[in-house]
Amino acid sequence: MNRFSLSLEHVEPFVPHREIDALAEETRQVVARVHQKSGPGSDFLGWLDLASSTTAADLQAMNEAAQALHDHTDAVVVIGIGGSYLGARAVMSALSHNFTGKGPDAGAPDIYFAGNNLSEEYLAELLDILQEKEFGLVVISKSGTTTEPAIAFRILKKMLEERIGREAARQRIIAITDARRGALRTLADQEGYRSFVIPDDIGGRYSVLTPVGLIPIAIAGHDIAALVHGAAEMEDLTCPARTFWENPAAQYAAVRNLLYRKGKKVEILVNYQPKLHYFAEWWKQLYGESEGKDGKGIFPAAVDFTTDLHSMGQYIQEGERILFETVLSVEEPTRQVVIPDDPADLDKLNYLAGKRVDEVNKMAELGTLLAHVDGGVPNMLISLARLDEHHLGQLIYFFEKACAISGYLLGVNPFDQPGVEAYKRNMFALLGKPGFEEETKKLRKKIKK
Ligand code: PA5
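A: This is the predicted complex of the input protein with 5-phosphoarabinonic acid.
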């Protein structure tokens, strides 16, 4: 197996080994319950063995659809929000050049994202950019009725149809949605768009390894087979046949619950690679939506170090002691930059001359970890050999599996998200959507008070 490791060494001062060991048997039973599909929300466990059951033919169908768009466009807009957006963005961003946004496939279209906010300025500026481009659209919505992507799709589809005609536009649109239900399914069938299905038993935030994530990732030129293979390896490493001490997802889930019980209510996912910023956004959604309910749940936060050491570092070191950190460490960067010698040495950096920038980054990482642990912030450390499709696949499945286990240990259903409906009801009522008349009256009264 390619290198992936979880170190609990720096939680030991806060949660001794014997306390973790005492939770091992309960956690092992939870892993079994996840696989027996006997816990709450068990209709949404389709992601559990998805990676190992994805066939070469599945991958080929996705790669072919992606290639068709790749070959006929110089830009693709990926439309979706939440679980229908963050996974693709997380993987693409982790695998792409920091500045061009491209992966190793220089001929891949530029990728833009839309439908993940309601900013008019964002859309207007996207339309400006697309004026100059031969573009295509990938529209992703499981329900097929989510307002943000639906508005973006309506606007971008119109632009595309006016530019190249309705028939040609159909060839440049891929829809990813439910097999049977929802407005997007109806539209895709009527218009004859090439379409892919989000399985019924996989919720948005667990869907990155379905066409939801894989199609956009393939369009950007990345190796989706390696991503799926990495996830399948982690599937094996976290299966019920493994003992607690062999299963990193079980250990991570158990430790974060033990920390939570000791008052550590905020988990900060730390990275030292700007490319992992969106991976942390994906992780925040996975854990926030899965665990934040019934008045419970660890609040998932994220920082990009060393950047945020100059902003959030003070709070983490000395603020309220309700925090713990999980550090994502990438052992080997793909590029090398060496710090040069300077005879004048006015900046006093010659002691670093000849060292790679990554050596400095790694010492910042270790120094920060030790300082934060000394300051009362437990740290877990996840190390990946490098940022590539294989390791990202491992990491994705690791966090998905751990999230399910952790949710059950916490005593919540990690697969529903009833709380996200509240803002939608208010927004629809305020906008006067048919069917929301009673809510509109109630809200108007509230606003007047
Ligand atoms: O995880 C979830 O279920 C949500 O974040 C959804 O993915 C998000 O609300 C988008 O929903 P849909 O794919 O139905 O447009």
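The chain has a mean pLDDT of 96. The longest strand covers residues 323-330.
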